[in-house]
Design a protein that fits this description.
The protein is mainly alpha-helical and 297 residues long. Helix content is 70%, strand content 4%. Strands 2-1-3 form a 3-stranded antiparallel β-sheet. Helix 1 runs antiparallel to helix 5, helix 1 packs antiparallel against helix 9 and helix 5 packs antiparallel against helix 7. The longest helix is centred in the N-terminal third of the chain and has 46 residues. The protein starts with a helix and ends with a strand. Bound molecules: zinc ion (ZN) (2 copies). The site of one zinc ion has 6 residues, from loops. The site of one zinc ion has 7 residues, from helix 10.
């Protein structure tokens, strides 16, 4: 059954791309952490006494030196092509940064977290676009039909939900990391302790409540799931629309390797009339890599 073999290959291709994206995602995560670490360290060197950072030191009003540090940090992030949602948030952080040194250090943390979410956002966006395009080519429909499929991929409504959630998450993780770092500062931390909270532990030893890097690792794993979920969603939408255009009546669900019980059950429940067939991932679950295929007897 050539059809089924092709679909299994496609799933494998998608899984390989997921691995690739995880590597990129991890690099972005590491990059944001070192951004925060490096710039907080600069403030520590400026304000710490005997390697201790005290609340009174950081409650000082900001100086020209601080302002210049902030500008250098932001320049490093190269924000000119950031989405509006991110630019808006950066403006808010810049305002906070002007209050005092402590707030500026918090704003540095926020800018690093925000930069990480900007990367996540573009990773998901690129992936949806690429997988949508591949699915259209695979559909082998007439040019006019292909245009209709393109409009499914580019429909702004599709991106609104995940994108809005992602920016909300960026706010939450900004607050979370700021609070971890602030706690250290309020308790008069040593510089080493402060920097250590921005060094990730191995997964088994993670302490997301007290370690800022481990907290951001939660966001990293959320991003891994989101990429797969949205890639699956666009692929299923285009694939389903294409099969309808081609007059397909019945479809089967093909499981990803090592599929969960729910997905195996759904596949066994097939074939399904195309109009009542399960939507992936909505009727399966986030992070599902199963796909639909024309039912052949
Ligand atoms: Zn499943
Ligand atoms: Zn599945």
């Amino acid at each position: 059954m050539a059809n089924l073999t092709m679909e299994k290959l496609r799933i494998q291709e998608l899984l390989n791309q997921d691995k690739q994206d995880n590597l990129t995602n991890n690099q972005d995560y590491q990059q944001s952490l070192s951004f925060i670490r490096d710039h907080l360290q600069a403030f520590c060197y400026q304000y710490a006494k005997d390697n201790q950072l005290t609340p009174s030191e950081v409650s000082q009003r900001i100086t020209r030196w601080d302002k210049q540090e902030w500008l250098n940090a932001i320049r490093e992030l190269d924000t000119h092509d950031w989405p509006e949602e991110a630019k808006k948030r950066l403006t808010g952080l810049a305002k906070d940064a002007g209050i005092n040194v402590h707030h500026m250090m918090n704003a540095i943390v926020g800018a690093g977290v925000l930069a990480y979410f900007v990367h996540q956002h573009s990773l998901v966006q690129r992936r949806v676009k690429a997988d949508g395009a591949t699915e259209i080519v695979r559909a082998q429909v007439k040019p006019r039909q292909a245009n209709r499929l393109v409009s499914i991929v580019t429909d702004p409504d599709n991106a609104t939900k995940w994108s809005t959630n992602l920016w909300d998450d960026s706010d939450q993780f900004t607050r979370d990391l700021q609070s971890v770092v602030s706690k250290h500062i309020r308790h008069g931390t040593s510089v080493d302790e402060l920097i250590n909270t921005l060094v990730p532990h191995s997964k088994a030893l993670e302490k997301p409540n007290i370690n800022a890097a481990d907290r951001l690792a939660v966001a990293k794993r959320n991003a891994e799931r989101l990429i797969v979920t949205e890639s699956s969603r666009v692929s299923d939408r285009v694939n389903t629309a294409a099969m309808k255009m081609q007059g397909v009546l019945m479809v089967d669900v093909v499981n990803e390797p090592g599929a969960c019980e729910k997905c195996v059950g759904i596949a066994e429940g097939g074939p399904y009339p195309i109009d009542d067939a399960p939507s992936i991932p909505d009727d399966t679950h986030p992070h599902c890599r199963c796909i639909k295929v024309e039912h052949r007897v």
